[in-house]
Amino acid sequence: MTPAPPEIPDFVAFLAKERNDSPHTVKAYARDVADFAAFCGRYYGGAWSWAGVDRLAVRGWLGAMQQRGLAKRSAARALSALRTFYRFLDATRGLEVNPARAARTPKLERTLPTHLDRAEIDLLFAEAERRADAGGFGAARDLAMLELFYSTGMRLAELAGLNDQDLDLVSDQVKVRGKGKKERIVPVGSHAGLAVRRYFRQRDAIAAAGTADRRAVFVSRRGKRLTPRSVQLAVKRLLGTLSRGRDLHVHSLRHSFATHLLDAGADLRAVQELLGHASLGTTQVYTHTSVERLKKVYHQAHPRA
Predict the structure, then answer these.
(1) Is 277 a catalytic residue?
(2) Which domain holds residue 178?
(3) Based on the domain organization, do 168 and 126 belong to the same domain?
(4) Is 155 one of the annotated active-site residues of the chain?
(5) Over the Cα atoms of the chain, what is R_g?
(6) How many whole angstroms separate alpha carbon 196 and alpha carbon 140?
């Protein structure tokens, strides 16, 4: 196996320490650039250099990804990684060429985010509350997680990483650490606050035994911080109680949070801040969801639609 070029570890360190990118992004970008380097070894059939790469090699790499059945979104991210890598080489090595700049980004299918309608939200929370009322640590915790997801619109990793000091139930707000280690303050709704307080009473009983992780908000029955996968499975079980539960996932709650706010007339920039989006364009996809809903209502209700 050909060793990875030495510039890649330096690039990884730059992404993690200088740009403060998330571990997920750092890992994905490193993998993409290493994949391109491996492709160049085959493409040029021997010695090659970053400076000597031309745009035909980049096009060939994109074509190879398509042949492997890679999704267009993954190919677009890989191309973005390569462009970022060449900008890094320019800044740190004085390499001014960037063959990835001229390559066309694969056109992505614009899909509307999957979200729950108001009736589904009511059914979902009614079931989660019924289970919590029946007693049990797990049911109380899962209701609290569900409420926080829908109340704040936070991402899976953000909720799993919450510490006690981040959650202020006196001021009804939570400090969320998002992508790129950026922090934002998000309000916590009254229903979520009540659910979290109920869960805390049960969690504190576990903590009294001396085995709990005293920093983590959400823990297992043994007191250990829940992994993102454990959070995902717990919420997925609740979503599975809905008729189309198979099509829903944790991120659907984030989509629902944004869509329902915009449906009710919330300002787009305010929703952008709440979601922690760097670009307003990312948030605008939810306006399309709202427009589609309005069109549906229009065609159902207007006599001459």
Answers:
(1) yes
(2) 118-251
(3) yes
(4) yes
(5) 23
(6) 8
- Tokens representing 161 are 């990483």
Active site residue 302: no
Q: Is 24 a catalytic residue?
A: no
User: What is the total count of domains within the chain?
Assistant: 2
206 within some domain:
yes
Catalytic (active site) residue 286:
yes
Quote the CA–CA distance of 122 and 116 in Å, as a whole number. 10
Question: What is the chain's pLDDT, residue by residue, as a tens digit (305 residues)?
Answer: 456 688 999 999 999 888 888 888 899 999 999 999 999 999 988 889 999 999 899 999 999 998 998 888 889 999 999 999 999 999 999 988 899 988 888 776 666 678 898 999 999 999 999 999 998 899 999 999 999 999 999 999 999 999 999 999 999 999 998 877 788 999 999 999 999 999 999 888 877 766 667 789 999 988 899 999 999 999 999 999 999 988 899 999 999 999 899 888 888 889 898 998 888 877 877 777 666 666 776 778 778 76
Q: Which of 141, 203, 254, 260 is catalytic?
A: 254
Could you say which of 77, 115, 155, 255 is catalytic?
Answer: 155
| Model pTM score | 0.67
Active-site residue, selected from the candidate residues 27, 236, 251, 293: 251
Q: How far apart are CA 96 and CA 102, in angstroms?
A: 14
- Whether residue 275 lies inside any domain: the answer is no
Which CATH number belongs to the domain containing residue 63 in this structure?
Answer: 1.10.150
Q: Which two tokens stand for residue 34?
A: 């290493």
- Residue 27 is among the residues annotated as catalytic for this protein: no
Is there a single domain that holds both residue 85 and residue 195?
A: no
